[in-house]
Amino acid sequence: MTHRSYFCGSPDHGVSRRGFLGTAAAASAFAADMTHLDVLQTPLFASEVKKQQKHVILLWLAGGASQLETWDPKPGAPTGGPFRAINTSVPGVAISELMPKLAARMEHTAIVRSLNTRNADHGGGALMMETGRAVDQGIPCPDLGAMIAHELGRADSPVPDYVSMYSSTEGRRKGGSGFLGSRYAPMFLAEQTIPENIRRLEAVSDIDHQQRQELRTFLAKRFANGRMDNTVASQNMAYERVRGLMTSEKLFDVEQEPAEMRAKYGPTQFGEQCLIARRLVEAGVPFVKVARAWWDSHGQNFETHLELVTELDHVMSTLIDDLKDRGLLEHTLIITLGEFGRTPGINASLGRDHFASAWSSSLSGCGIKGGAVWGKTDEDGHKVIDGEVKAGDLFATVFEALGVDHKREFHIGARPIPITDFGCGPIKSILA
Question: What CATH number corresponds to the domain at position 351?
């Protein structure tokens, strides 16, 4: 399950300086296989490569956010609730009044209003929306983050391929790499944003630390010389990745950001984690998952969503602006997703219950046709009446937006496992 390389390694097949630097497209294609070349030592090229890499930031709305208070409002309907719909920067597209900042930036976002995933159980729904398919007994399937890490990660990268940040209040679902193996498992952060046990021991000085690294590198190269052994290469690669993680500690520290930038995101845990997510993708991390709990509003749905949607509106808008200002939005896909939506019917506790028959998601940035809306629900929001979407269809759309073939297959022994579920395909009308 390794990336296919079309570069033979011979210096006779090098790329000319003019051809290489002529276009950003050349840089992007060249960056797809960095395992043979040391071009990242050139700062200008390293900067260009980082801009061309594809990334995902998944904003996981744990517990199930209401589509009626976010992307698919039904004002005036018996199921609509107290909040209005407002116009957006895209003519003809309206969203909840709780998201005025995102409404002003709708040209960057596509809405999917017709998810029908048929599983309204927290555990089963979350597993489906993490992996993009129903559970296949006997085969542990990788989640979206692991698949993206596998497809977009670089073997020589000093930073993690997949980082998952949760609060401790929503079940600590870790996701998993399934049959792809531990190489693509998430770095999971639940108690704090800075990973544990990656700091150099105080008893070891900087000089000693560097000299130990130089000695180990010398001995490793000497031992590996003339030995065509994957085990040796794998061990050396694992060691270098650990070294890379140690040097990336500051990426997780929001105090490294100017006070003005921290103030833009706000002082909440969700805001700080989204700022860290931007720092991580800017450094080359392919997939970052930020979870915000707890949207499971069986009671007091409207008070809950007034608080949580207002925060989502502010933080996600800031993230979009920040990525855009840095030239990263066109290469970074932001997804809002949870395990399901909420019932159109309002219960006796003024809450909305679990609902997987007609709910919404959003996609912003990389590969997406901003302002597009796919699917339609009926006037009360009870059912999809146009453009039904399954979990696998949404995943296929994500892969295609990132330039990954949604028909690609993994192989477990002789058994092919498609990267998206059988019979699923991308929503082409929302792809750029």
Answer: 3.40.720.10
Residue 63: both structure tokens together? 């517990």
Number of domain units in the chain: 1
Distance CA 156, CA 274 (A): 25
Distance between CA atoms of residues 298 and 78, nearest Å: 18
The torsion angles phi and psi of 97, rounded to 5 degrees, stand at -65, -10
Please name every residue paired with 342 in a beta bridge, in sequence order, or none if there are none.
354
Residue 107, in any domain of the structure: yes
Q: What is the pLDDT along the chain (432 residues), one digit of tens a residue?
A: 444 433 333 333 344 333 334 444 444 443 433 333 344 445 555 555 555 799 999 999 999 999 999 999 999 999 999 999 999 999 999 999 999 999 999 999 999 999 999 999 999 999 999 999 987 657 899 999 999 999 999 877 888 899 999 765 555 566 789 999 888 989 888 877 777 666 666 777 778 767 776 776 777 777 777 676 656 555 565 566 666 666 677 899 999 999 999 999 999 999 999 999 999 999 999 999 999 989 999 999 999 999 999 999 999 999 999 999 999 999 999 999 999 999 999 999 999 999 999 999 999 999 999 999 999 999 999 999 999 999 999 999 999 999 999 999 998 888 889 999 999 999 999 999
- Neighbour count for residue 218 (Cβ, 10 Å): 10
Domain that includes residue 150, residue range: 53-193+253-430
Answer yes or no: is 422 within a domain: yes
